[in-house]
Design brief:
alpha/beta; OB fold (Dihydrolipoamide Acetyltransferase, E2P); 5-stranded parallel beta sheet; 5-stranded antiparallel beta sheet
């Protein structure tokens, strides 16, 4: 099983590397001091297991889990504090190790990760918020503040009243993250917050200063969803 370590403490990384070397079923392919540096690597490589520190500057382990979401491999969390355990297991992690880590507990967590079925489900993380990467910083945004989601090429821009956030993603991924009770796909390039609609004229939806076209293939579904009479 190919694995990586994410921990800002070099001594902790060295200990984990030593423990991993004693398990022939594990292959350490990389390690990272900063979780933001690991994101692109995970998306581009076949990482099956992450040994992930909970407390790190700029981005915690829990925030990291939320950010990767459906792209998340199996995770064994490591921390110096046991009080995070209850919260950690809400996110379906394979293990939770308290530092200083004992080899027998490490081995037990690895055995559990090896025998678990592949996790293909999306991690739910505080359904009312979404995390967005801006440079090296992860920003938490309340979903209700997002009024419009716009796709341009391989990028998606989320519009709030105050600011725009552009991320590398797909509209399908956005549809999965934003509840269809509150949001509606009206065009191949647009998802709107239903409560943000001001008026509709000539198959265009007004949201603030923007006019959003209703796509031909979405028109009948949009009108049915909006209960237009």
């Amino acid at each position: 099983m190919k694995c990586i370590i994410i921990d800002d403490d070099k001594m902790a990384r060295d200990i984990l590397e030593h423990f991993i070397s004693k398990h022939p079923e594990l292959e350490l392919i990389n390690q990272f001091e900063n979780p933001t540096d690991a994101i692109a690597y995970i998306k581009q490589n076949d990482v099956k297991l992450i040994f992930l520190d909970v407390e790190m500057p700029k981005m915690t382990g829990i925030e990291f889990i939320a950010y990767l979401n459906e792209n998340l491999p199996k995770v064994i969390l490591t921390t110096s504090h046991s009080e995070f355990a209850i919260e950690a297991f809400k996110y379906n992690v394979s293990g939770y190790l308290v530092k200083p880590i004992k080899f027998d507990l490490f081995s037990a967590a690895v055995k559990k990760a090896l025998t678990e079925k592949e996790n293909n489900t999306t991690v739910e993380f505080k359904d009312n918020v979404v995390f967005i990467k801006e440079g090296k910083t992860i920003v938490k945004i309340v979903k209700a503040d997002i009024k419009l989601i716009e796709c341009i090429g391989d990028y998606v821009t989320l519009h709030s009243k105050e600011k725009k956030y552009t991320v590398h993603s797909t509209m399908k991924a956005m549809e999965n993250r934003f509840s269809n009770n509150d949001y509606l796909r009206v065009h191949r390039s647009y998802i709107i917050q239903i409560d943000a609609i001001e008026d509709i004229e000539d198959d265009s939806i007004a949201i603030g200063q923007k006019l959003i076209p209703i796509g031909k293939t979405y028109k009948s579904a949009v009108y049915r969803r909006l209960n237009i009479i």
